[in-house]
Design a protein that fits this description.
Helix content is 23%, strand content 34%. The longest helix is centred in the N-terminal third of the chain and has 18 residues, at 41-58. It is globular, with a radius of gyration of 16 Å. The protein has 5 helices and 14 strands. It has one domain (40-183): Alpha-Beta Complex (tt1808, chain A), CATH 3.90.1570.10. It has helices at residues 12-21, 41-58, 117-121, 123-128, 180-183; strands at 4-9, 26-29, 32-36, 63-66, 71-74, 79-81, 85-89, 101-102, 107-111, 136-140, 146-152, 158-164, 168-171, 176-179. This is Putative restriction endonuclease domain-containing protein. Residues 13-177 form the Putative restriction endonuclease domain.
């Protein structure tokens, strides 16, 4: 998802009602609601490629890939947001406060945009790290063929794995590997 467009105050229950009928997605953080703007065509294309590649690799196993229409809730920090891609292994679990918000993703993916890169790398990453089930956070560059995967270690810290043109990114906790060139196949001209 791209930039936050506007902010308003509301209760979580009111936010959930808003989202049921909304034609625009909103992010919720501790009573503040932000309307989200759309992304570029390349942003949308890259999301589609990541969904396609992960779905292909995970098709025969217990993991499911969700698009940016799937809302994720970070209970500990009171954030609801729409990652570009989410992966859940096993049965999807939802928040006790909203049956439409996933709480057990193992992988979250954000395609970086100029307007949200600092947020995706900083505050949003800090929120995501509070999800107990989360094993990895993948950042996909829009400007160059580069993938960055942050993986939770057994000690609770995070390790960074990067891949670029001609390389594959191994996502060991999912037992999959993604070719960077496949993600960026048929890139739109800039």
């Amino acid at each position: 998802m791209s930039a936050r467009a506007s902010v308003q105050q509301m209760t979580y229950a009111d936010y959930c009602e808003l989202e049921r009928a909304a034609t625009v997605k909103h992010e919720y953080l501790r009573g503040e609601v932000f309307a989200m703007t759309g992304g570029t065509l390349e942003h949308a294309r890259l999301i589609g490629r990541v969904i396609h590649l992960l779905s292909r690799e995970l098709a025969s196993g217990p993991c499911r890939v969700f698009s940016s229409d799937a809302r994720v809730r970070v209970e500990e920090t009171d954030l609801d947001t729409y990652p570009d891609v989410s992966v859940v292994c096993g049965e999807p679990e939802t928040s006790e406060r909203s049956e439409l918000a996933l709480v057990n993703p193992v992988l979250l993916v954000e395609v970086l945009s100029d307007s949200t890169e600092a947020y995706d790398r900083g505050q949003k990453a800090a929120h995501y790290r509070r999800i107990p089930s989360l094993r990895g956070y993948l950042l996909v560059s829009q400007h160059e063929p580069r993938l960055e995967l942050f993986v939770r270690r057994d000690d609770g810290g995070w390790s960074l794995f990067e891949a670029s043109t001609g390389e594959r990114l191994s996502i060991e906790f999912l037992a999959v590997s993604i070719a960077v060139d496949e993600v960026y196949q048929a890139a739109l001209p800039r």
